[in-house]
């Protein structure tokens, strides 16, 4: 098998698997005794501090651990007191699970406008700014990095526009965290959720949500106080006992990513190699804009899409196929990789597409 779908799920790092096993083994000695509860809370706090370093934020108490980005999005949207007539801005490039939750708010009288990404960041910012002139815009929810074609949206600038108009800015970082550097304080959005098992190499079933003090001010229903009386802003989203092994594994993955970096130059070189070889094929059109892209993703369309997919599947090459969405940009094929991909496997995949 030649795996070119890292944007969907990356292999769990060996050190991360070992950390999960080690943590569960330690917890097993205590379980939910008084000592075990104290150990559990201390471990969660330690993991928050570790994850905080990757995101360059000052207060780890605003980090909540959740099973994945979709759950984080669902819980956040559920806790906001939407009013009939509220409008949410989003894009046609959002993951189906995110889009579905936005559409599900229709029963509460909420309308979502899905903006079509343009050919440049400047044009997209203009379309966002124009849409924000509507007084009923309550929030904007969009990806940091598009899962469709890897374009990096100008999140910090959009967050500035939203803040000026008292509009909530919620960011899906599932395709950003671990692929590119993410500085939450620089982005300055109201909420940022992410997955741990894509570009970070963390264990399946991990992710998180980072909220802001401003969000707590604007959405009182999110505020909570722990049973002990200690104010923990993120605790509203951490319901019940969680798998401390998975949380420790996510923290370990974030630590490794912080220490070893994002291998950006290596990923860029692979992307240029893939792009240049695909451009030699007249039946292929790469999906890009004039702005920056995530270095581990490249998407293209082929005139004989169905025939090509049959060949790719027969050769056991794993890719992401966009067949039904986004509207006007399908069918298309997304390739995604990390720096560990073997050169001979990548060459074989590209030769298969070329032939």
Corresponding CATH architecture of the largest domain: 3-Layer(aba) Sandwich
CATH superfamily of the largest domain: Type I PLP-dependent aspartate aminotransferase-like (Major domain)
Count of helical regions = 12
CATH fold node name of the largest domain: Aspartate Aminotransferase, domain 2
**For the CA atoms, what is the radius of gyration?**
21 Å
Description of the molecule:
The model has no long low-confidence stretch (mean pLDDT 94). The chain has 355 residues and is α/β, with parallel strands linked by helices. Helix 3 packs parallel to helix 4 (96-104). The chain has two domains: 2-11 and 263-354, Alpha-Beta Complex (Aspartate Aminotransferase, domain 1), CATH 3.90.1150.10; 14-259, Type I PLP-dependent aspartate aminotransferase-like (Major domain) (Aspartate Aminotransferase, domain 2), CATH 3.40.640.10. Helices cover 40% and strands 16% of the residues. The two termini are 19 Å apart. It is globular, with a radius of gyration of 21 Å. The chain has twelve helices and 13 strands. Strand 5 (137-143), helix 6 and strand 6 form a beta-alpha-beta unit. Strands 2-8-7-6-5-3-4 form a seven-stranded mixed beta sheet, sandwiched between helices. Strands 9-10-13-12 form a four-stranded antiparallel beta sheet. It has a two-stranded parallel ribbon with strand order 1-11.
């Amino acid at each position: 098998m030649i795996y070119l779908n890292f944007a969907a799920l990356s292999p769990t790092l060996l050190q991360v698997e070992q950390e999960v096993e080690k943590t569960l083994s330690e917890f097993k000695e205590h379980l939910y005794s008084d000592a075990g509860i104290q150990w559990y809370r201390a471990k969660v706090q330690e993991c928050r501090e570790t994850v905080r370093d990757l995101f360059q934020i000052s207060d780890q108490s605003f980090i909540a651990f959740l099973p994945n980005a979709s759950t984080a999005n669902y819980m956040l949207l559920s806790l906001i007191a939407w009013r009939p007539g509220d409008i949410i801005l989003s894009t046609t490039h959002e993951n189906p699970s995110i889009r579905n939750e936005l559409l599900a708010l229709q029963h509460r009288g909420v309308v979502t406008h899905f903006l079509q990404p343009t050919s440049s960041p400047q044009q997209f910012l203009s379309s966002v700014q124009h849409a924000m002139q509507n007084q009923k815009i309550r929030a904007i929810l969009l990806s940091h990095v598009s899962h469709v074609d890897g374009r990096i949206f100008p999140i910090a600038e959009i967050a500035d526009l939203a803040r000026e108009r008292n509009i909530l800015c919620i960011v899906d970082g599932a395709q950003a965290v671990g692929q590119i550097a993410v500085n939450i304080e620089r982005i300055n959005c109201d909420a940022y959720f992410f997955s741990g098992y894509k570009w970070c190499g963390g264990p399946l079933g991990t992710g998180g949500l980072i909220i802001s003090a401003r969000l707590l001010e604007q959405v009182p229903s999110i505020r909570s106080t722990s049973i002990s009386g200690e104010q923990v802003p993120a605790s509203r989203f951490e319901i019940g006992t969680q798998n401390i092994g998975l949380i420790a594994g996510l923290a370990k993955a974030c630590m490794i990513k912080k220490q070893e970096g994002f291998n950006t130059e290596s990923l860029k070189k692979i992307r240029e190699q893939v792009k240049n070889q695909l451009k030699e094929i007249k039946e292929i059109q790469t999906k890009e804009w004039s702005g920056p892209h995530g270095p581990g993703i490249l998407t293209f369309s082929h005139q004989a899409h169905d025939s090509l997919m049959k060949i790719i599947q027969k050769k056991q090459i794993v890719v992401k196929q966009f067949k039904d969405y986004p509207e006007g940009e399908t069918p298309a094929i997304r390739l995604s990789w990390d720096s560990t991909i073997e050169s001979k496997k990548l060459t074989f995949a590209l030769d298969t597409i070329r032939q």
